[in-house]
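Write out the 3D structure for:
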Amino acid sequence: MNDKLITTLEEKLQRALPGQDVQYQMAHVIRRQYDPAPAHAQRAGVLALLYPKEKEWHIVLIERSSRHPGDQHSGQISFPGGRFEEPDRTLADTALREAHEEVGVDPHIVTLIGELTELYIPVSNFLVKPFVGYTSRTPHFQPQLSEVSSIVETPVRLLKNPETRQATDLKISGNITLRNVPYFNVFGKVVWGATAMMLNELLEVMK
């Protein structure tokens, strides 16, 4: 397996990041009108995990299926991750712990190589720090059934394909529909919102 992608990505992640401008290329126009994160925003960490499978690099995404009442992200596609909790020393610990809980990836086989620009999610009041890591072999994924309805193993090649970037109308509640929402079409699943924004920055760094 050619690890040039990882070597180059690690090097570029140490430089200035593309930042919010690139993230917002995959945001709905209304999203641009939100205020910055308030002081009381909850902290969270997510993991963009790259791994080799069938001789090409993949990124693991999850389809959320939460039993918590009022969960604003149930049914959406996202990176493994969640809120900072007291046992965590850092947000990197949070991202690794949540990846272990949600998809069964042992933190000891993950090598972190950098971070992306943090992103505020107004609907749930989370300020999210994305971490980028990789494993040298294909993990044995085990979904946390209470939180994850499916694991979406996504080839990097697919995300880089311009045809994967599309737009659609999304019904987000009983009487609210967002028009012309940009998203990544991943095997027919709609990857939009914060996850699409963070993915776009990662793909920009990969260029």
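The mean pLDDT is 92.
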